[in-house]
Design goal:
15 strands; three-stranded antiparallel sheet; elongated; 13 helices; 432 residues; alpha+beta; 41% helix; four-stranded antiparallel sheet
């Protein structure tokens, strides 16, 4: 059967979902086929303390953004190799899972760290691949992957059957004004799902930001009060001293008692207007009328210290979480930095294994069935791990983090920016 004919049998031209496998090919069959596609099964709903709005807001925090970017940074540079017990299968899969396709996949699928899960629609296409078989150049028609259409997590609902088995994704397309445009059911052959921390059958996973929710929310509160304090410093409350005896006339000629006139003078000062004070003195030569400002205690250093403290807590919770539990001091030995750096490297390699594992479990079996039929070849995508450069970079960055980010020298910050490509937020001292 020609690939174009096979492709037409695999896909209806008027809708983006796989409807049946070709005769003789043990492709995946999901649910009962109906006139509108496949039965959806039950919908699994997300249960998390963090809302999607909170996650998106947290991702814009400079320290959170740095930590997530640093964890993900080496992933797009990881080499992925095809391992198979058949040389032809290795060659064909290497042409389907190209370096460009995998680099984009790893970069986008890593968003499961942010949201707990990340879904994508698999875009299949017939293509021609060429590879060497011995000394001969072989050209072959295959069904490959054009790319992945990544889905907004907040618009995706995971479908499961009564036993908790994966049945695809129900996706909501929104208009620009936020109203629902359409709802599409993607069956498992078209819906790739990557889950971070898959526990207790929860396919929505767990966001890495759960670990820093408390320090982030507390820093938000501290920042709110800090801004109020600075606002008060910039616009202090005037204090008017007045002579309680006698009456006075204001600029309009209205007779006022001294207290009312003093209050009106204070309002004029707050509004940025000029004021005129009665020129009267007591028997000792002291002015009976005067204006001063209420001076609050200088709390700026306290607020700044609290903000920096929570920055450190956020960074440690994302990069070296056990540090927050094992030691409260801001110093550490080289051996401690080495062990924490090794922990971060292991986390990065585990993330890579999760992302490639999703391809091995959900996409690779379909590629094998579509292109090799009933032949039972063994194949797997494997990662080569982090490069030596990325490992050394991770250890050095963690070593600096353990020394507390606020103590970094300018040349250290410059080195971090150069090595990671991530700009550090420059803190400008607040003088009040």
């Amino acid at each position: 059967m020609k690939t174009s004919q096979l492709f037409r049998r695999l896909f209806r031209l008027d809708e983006p979902r796989l409807i049946a496998g070709p005769a003789g090919v043990p492709g995946p069959q999901y649910g009962e086929q109906t006139s509108t596609g496949y039965l959806a099964g039950s919908l699994a709903y997300r249960d998390s303390e963090l809302t999607f709005d909170q996650i998106r807001k947290m991702r814009r925090h400079p320290v959170v953004k740095f930590c997530l970017s640093f964890i993900k940074m080496p992933l797009s540079r990881i080499k992925v190799n095809v391992q198979s017990d058949n040389e032809e299968v290795t060659q064909v899969l290497s042409e389907i899972f190209t370096e460009e396709l995998l680099r984009g996949y790893l970069r986008n699928a890593a968003r499961c760290l942010d949201f707990g899960f990340q879904g994508a629609e698999v875009i299949w296409e017939p293509k021609t691949v060429s590879y060497k078989q011995g000394e001969q150049l072989v050209t072959r028609q295959v069904i490959g992957i054009k790319g992945f259409k990544w889905l907004k997590p907040e618009n995706a609902t995971i479908r499961e059957n009564e036993l908790g088995g994966y049945r695809g994704i129900q996706y909501r397309n929104d208009n620009a004004n936020g109203t629902v445009q359409s709802v599409v059911d993607l069956d498992p052959a078209k819906a790739l799902l990557v889950t971070n921390v898959f526990e207790d059958g929860n396919r929505y996973g767990e966001s890495e930001l759960e670990a820093c929710k408390k320090p982030w929310s507390r820093q938000e509160n501290v920042e709110t009060f800090f801004l109020r304090y600075l606002e008060g410093k910039a616009d202090p409350i005037p204090k008017v001293f007045y002579d309680p005896e006698g009456t006075y006339k204001d600029s309009s000629g209205t007779t006022l008692d001294a207290r009312t006139l003093a209050y009106n003078l204070a309002k004029s000062v707050r509004q940025g207007r000029g004021v005129a004070l009665p020129s009267r003195y007591d028997e000792k030569g002291n002015r009976l009328w005067d204006i001063e400002y209420l001076e609050a205690e200088d709390k700026a250093p306290l607020y700044r210290a609290a903000m920096e403290h929570f920055d450190t807590k956020i960074m440690r919770s994302l990069l070296v979480p056990e540090r927050s539990l094992t030691q409260a001091e801001d110093v550490g030995s080289y051996s401690m930095a080495e062990s924490h750096g090794s922990y971060l490297i292991q986390r990065q390699e585990d993330v890579a294994a999760i992302l490639i594992g999703a391809l091995n479990e959900q996409v690779l079996p379909q590629v094998m069935a579509y292109n090799f039929g009933t032949e039972r070849y063994q194949a797997e995508l494997q990662t080569s791990g982090l490069s030596t450069t990325d490992k050394e970079l991770a250890k050095q960055v963690v070593s600096m983090i353990l020394a507390t980010p606020d103590r970094l020298q300018p040349e250290q910050v410059e080195w971090l920016e150069k090595q990671t490509g991530i700009p550090f937020a420059k803190r400008v001292p607040v003088t009040v």
